[in-house]
Amino acid sequence: MKKSDSPARSRREAIAQWRRVDLHDAEKARADCAKPVSQVLPALLEKFGFDKRLSEAEVMRVWLNLVDPNIATHAKPAGLNKGTLFVNVDSSVWLDEIVRYRRREILQRLQHAFGKDVIARISFRLG
């Protein structure tokens, strides 16, 4: 036994005596199978779709900057699902105006900002 091991061993023995059970082997086994957060976090973020949710939140945040202010006051993004951005419009008159004359322009701006893989389509609806 090395001299440097004795303080650690004394500490471990004191803790085992205080607990009235030696858990050193069990604690060591748990520590050996533990993984650093840097290994676990990317898999969790992918599993829960964090990147997708982040891009959805980003669309909501920049909507006002990408779209004409007149349209932005009457149309608000409601969600993004499988490449389709759903936008709620407050009146049928504005819905007609946007769908007929502005849909392509809005879609092109959003695709330019986020890419066609994030926003492939846009769906306007009363809401």
Q: Which terms would index this structure?
A:
rod-shaped, 2 domains, 3 strands, 15% strand, 127 residues, 6 helices
Termini distance?
75 Å
Number of domains: 2
Q: Which CATH architecture of the largest domain would you pick?
A: 2-Layer Sandwich
What profile does the largest beta sheet have? 3 strands, mixed
Briefly note the CATH topology name of the largest domain.
Answer: GMP Synthetase, Chain A, domain 3
Strand fraction equals 5-15%
**Average pLDDT metric:** 85
Under the CATH scheme, which class of the largest domain? Alpha Beta
What are the secondary-structure elements, in order, as H or E? HHHHHEEHE
Can you characterise this structure?
The chain is α+β, with helices and mostly antiparallel strands and 127 residues long. The protein has two domains: 5-34; 49-126, GMP Synthetase, Chain A, domain 3, CATH 3.30.300.180. It is built from six helices and three strands, in the order αααααββαβ. The protein has helices at residues 5-19, 24-33, 37-47, 50-66, 69-74, 92-114; strands at residues 75-81, 84-89, 121-126. The protein has a three-stranded mixed β-sheet. α6 links the parallel β2 (84-89) and β3 (121-126). α4 (50-66) packs across α6 (92-114). The relative contact order is 0.10.
